[in-house]
Specification:
Strand 4 (about 140-145) and strand 5 (about 145-150) form a beta hairpin. Helices cover about 50% and strands about 15% of the residues. The protein has helices at about 5-10, 30-40, 45-55, 75-85, 105-120, 130-135, 155-160, 165-175, and strands spanning about 15, 90-95, 120-125, 140-145, 145-150. The strands form two sheets. A three-stranded parallel sheet has the order 1-2-3, covered by helices on one side. A two-stranded antiparallel ribbon has the order 4-5. With about 180 residues, the chain is an alpha/beta fold.
Length: about 180
């Protein structure tokens, strides 16, 4: 794959990391606008409009001017989701998006992700949030030591797992 083709493919993928990676010196709206103005070369006015819409979509309409240090972990993660969505990707990748959050903040991030899924976004999510996976996923891949050991619809994975490693994990999870 040539560099230009790879760049085009990457431009269609949104990524949300477990540690947010927000610019500490930029407000929430500026964090969302950065990719739009720097990568997409969007005008400041258009980028601000898109950023406002995406921040409102994730429930942060009242936090446009807040800096990351003024936000909870869940709010920071929702800014990161808004930033990725603003780029209008075809696919969103989530790497343990709730693992760095306090338990009470997990639900607010999962609710936003569920809304994004309901709107038709293709998402690949690495998570230990089994209730979320059961409720939202079309397919669940269970991995062990970097290998997919079981790939099925959620109902099959949770009700009739076929791999012994999956069975052991779910026994602990469901206990």
């Amino acid at each position: 794959m040539v560099g230009r083709e790879l760049a085009e493919m990457r431009s269609q993928i949104g990524m949300v990391f477990q540690l947010f990676y927000l610019w500490p010196h930029l407000t929430a709206i500026e964090n969302v606008m950065a990719g739009l103005t720097d990568v997409r070369r969007m005008s400041t006015r258009a980028a601000a409009e898109m950023a406002r819409a995406q921040l409102a979509k994730v429930g942060l309409a009242d936090k446009f001017t807040a800096y990351p240090e003024q936000l909870s972990g869940g709010q920071r993660q929702r800014v990161a989701i808004a930033r990725a969505l603003a780029m209008e990707p075809k696919v969103m990748l989530f790497d343990e998006p709730t693992s760095a959050l306090d338990p009470e903040l997990v639900d607010e991030v999962l609710a936003v992700m569920e809304k994004v899924a309901e709107e038709g976004m293709t998402m690949i999510v690495a998570t230990h949030e089994m209730d979320f996976a059961r409720r939202v996923a079309d397919r669940v891949a269970f991995m062990d030591e970097g290998q997919i050991v079981e790939l099925s619809p959620p109902q099959d994975i949770f009700e009739q797992p076929t791999n012994e490693r999956t069975v052991r994990f779910l026994r602990k999870y469901l206990a």
